[in-house]
Amino acid sequence: MSALLPVALSFAWYLLTMATVYLVMPIRSAFLMVNFGPAVLPWTFMANAVTTGIVVWLYGRWAHLPRKKLVGGTLGVLWSTLIVWWVAVVAAPKVGWVSFLFSVWTDIFVIMAVTVLWSTIDDIFSLKTAGQRYGLIASAGPLGAIVGSFVGKALIHRIGHSGLMLLAAGVFASVFPIFAALDRWAASTGPKVKEAKPVRKLQSLSQFVEVGRAIARSRLLLLITAIACFECVVPNLMTYILNTAMALAYPKMEDMVEAFAVFFLWTNSIAFLVSIALTSVALRFLGVGGTMAACSLVSLGGFALFAAWPTLMATAVPKALEDTLRFTWYRAAKESIYTVAPREVVYRVKAHIEVFIYRMASGGSGLLLLVLTGDRLLGLGPAAVALVGVPLAVGWTVAILYLDRAFARMKEEPESIQESIP
After folding, report:
1. Which residues constitute the domain of residue 62?
2. CATH number at residue 183
3. For the whole prediction, is pTM greater than 0.85?
């Protein structure tokens, strides 16, 4: 029973987190599209890069704290800001700059909420347990998204977007006792799979320099960093294409909220079934590299399809499949890599890669989209964006295959990654 307790707690934590996210995400997308339209997306991607840098710097300053204080404090800040944005959305639903800042905050909320969750899981589980249980835990993500999307679709015309925001805050509050229980289990009976060395405190902006050196000294971390960039840029291009098609099809905010909710509902329903039935099988037979490459290959096919047939259906179906694999097979495979890494990597280097560098790549994708689609620049349409996405998806696939080789070496020589940490 004790072996199943942390899995059940992790499952519940992930489910409730993603239910919160998918109550908020349709509001964020519709709010932004109604006030600005797709032309604002490149600017939001670039704004995400700047604001995330600040957030990661703040998080890095406190990464030396014990897990209870670090993760608990981060969750507390996320919940508090969720309440603040509920008030803002109620007070100014048609103010453009409010919708823009809300979009930027939503991105930070999503990535930080998921990052601290998986950092905790990676810290307390072993590589063996990851192979056995990560598929089950990962299935909680799409299941939570199903719940959030279904509730959002059912209630949007009854309680409005302000009511959904307040409901999201209530759902997210329920993760606090779950984390507390998981932390108590890890402290008392959890397997001591990693040496309990505290993460060193970094001062001021030197954290970026030290983490950068650590990444530069490790082939594995360099590859993870490259893949994090592709993992952001490629889906962002797909997101731009989907949002453009959605904005043309659904001009009213409530209708667009419902349309996004339906899209997320179907996407995550499929993702839940895939995660439950196939993730562990994929990891066993395809390995880390093959499981991750399935996602990048779907993106490649989606770009090619939309370039040849630019319709809402031609972007919605590949995007749904990309998200399905990215949040199930891909995440479970990528997170399993960190289970053999020291705590310094899990709590410090990972946060910089998965949050800061990831969002820097988001800024790069925004700049790329601005050049491609801006009226005063190239002024190209979404089909041209799809064509640009093809070689990027190919590069993503190649980087994954190299990562798979580096991971195989690290499993045999785990000290190789430790030597890169200054």
Report:
1. 5-418
2. 1.20.1250.20
3. no
